[in-house]
Amino acid sequence: MHNQPSRVQRLLVGARNLFAAISIVAIASTLLASAATSARTAASQDFSSSFEAGDPQPAWTDTVDAGKASGVTGPKPTGIPGNVTNKVVEVTANGENTGAGEVKENLTDGDIFSKWLVFESTGWVQYKLSEPVKVVLYALGSANDAPERDPRDWTLRASNDGQTWTTLDTQVDQSFSERFQMKEYPIVNDQAYLYYRLDITRNHGADIVQLAEWQISNGEVAPPQTTVMRSAVGKGPRSAYNAKTNVGFTGVRALEYGGEHTSDGRGYSYNKVFDVDVAVTPATELSYVIFPNFVPDDLSYPSTYAAVDLAFTDGTYLSELGATDQHGATLSPQGQGASKTLYTNQWNYKVSRIGDVAAGKTIDRILVAYDNPDGPADFGGWVDDIVIAGSPVHQRPARPSDWAVTTRGTNSSGSFSRGNNIPATAVPHGFNFWAPVTNAGTRSCQP
Ligand SMILES: [Ca+2]
Ligand SMILES: [Ca+2]
Ligand SMILES: [Ca+2]
Prior knowledge:
The N and C termini lie far apart (about 95 Å). With about 450 residues, the protein is mainly beta. Helix content is about 10%, strand content about 35%. The strands form five sheets. Strands 1, 3, 14, 15, 17, 19 and 21 form a seven-stranded antiparallel sheet that branches. The protein is elongated. The structure holds calcium ion (CA) (3 copies). The site of one calcium ion has 5 residues, from strand 16 and strand 20. One calcium ion binds next to loops.
C-alpha cells in the first residue's frame, strides 16, 4: 500500500517532469538565442534617467572619456576667497519676490545673475550657519538692473543665539559703479558666530531693495580650480527667465556641465556619465532636455556648444556619425552650437532618430560633451530627462488644430516677455482665439 504512489504523488511527479521538460526547452532556446547573437549580449533597447532617486545614477562624475579633452578646465571657483556661504542652513528676510523667483536664497547661490528683491525701501537678511564661523570679510553683489534699488547704508551684525547682536561693520553712502559688481568689505572680528545679519537701512531712492549676492568669508585663500570639466548631478539652474530654479526640468535634480574654455582655438571635453549596455534598433531615438546658461557679454553663446553624446562598443561616437535632431541640426556639440537652435537660460527639448546612423551598434557609455571651435569662454548648463527608446511610440494628432495647446499661455515672466496669450478657450460663448493689443504700459488687455 505504502509503495503505491498516491494520485497526488503521481500528479506531483508528472508536474516535476513537465517542469523539467519546460526547463530543457528554455535552456535550449537560450542557447540558440545566444548562438544567434554570438558577440552581442545587449540586454536592453531602452534607457532613461531624470537623475532622480530611483533612476539609474551616473557611474562617473567629472570624468573625461578616453582622454577626449583639450583646452578646457573646470569652472572658475565661485565666490570671494574663503567663501563660507555654503555653510548657510537658513535664510530669513523681511520679504522676497517669490512670484518672479527673486527669493532670499538667491543671495547665497554664488550666482551674480540671481537676485533677492523685496518691495520695501529698506531690508534685512539673516543667515544661520551649520556651525559658528569667524567671518573677517563679506561682499555684496549688485543685481541686473535699477541701481536705485541698490543698498546704500547698512550694518553687519553677528550673534550666537539669534537674540543678542554685536555690530561688526557699518557702511554709509556706498554705491556700485556697474551691474553684476561684487564689492568686498574686510572687517575686524576675532569671534566665531552662528548668525550673521545684514540690515540695509537706506537704498538709492527706489521703493524696492534688491541684491544679487551677500557672501561671507573666513579669510582663507580660494580653493584651486579643478582641471576637468564639471559633469555632476546637482539641483538644477540657479537662474532662469521663466523656469522654476533649483530643480530639474522634471523632478528636483539634473546633470550640470560647465567649465572654462582656456584656449584661443578649439576647446573640448567629452565626459562620460552613464555606463550602459543598450542595443540600437533602426527606430531608436535619443532625446533629452538641455539648459545652456547665458554667459553675459558673450554673444557667441558658448554654453550652446554642448550635447549628449554616446560611445558605442565598436569605438565610434554618435557625434561623429552625422545624426540630426528634429530641427535638422547635427547632433554633436559643435553642430548644436553652430545651429543656433538652442536658447540660453531656458530648457530646450532635443530628439534624434539615431537608428538612422547607428542601427546595429551597442551603446556602451552615455556622455555629456562640450566642443567649441573658438575660445576662450566660460560655459555651463544643465541636462535632464535622457531617454533612449528602441521602439518609440508617436501619437499623431487627428486634426491640425490639435497641435496647438490653446490653454498653455506663453509662460512669460517679469524679466522675460514672449507677448501675451490668453487661454480664451476657457471663456464661454464660443471664443477660440484672442489677440490682445496693449500699449505696453497698461495693466489691462484690449481685445
Ligand atoms: Ca530630473
Ligand atoms: Ca545670487
Ligand atoms: Ca557599458
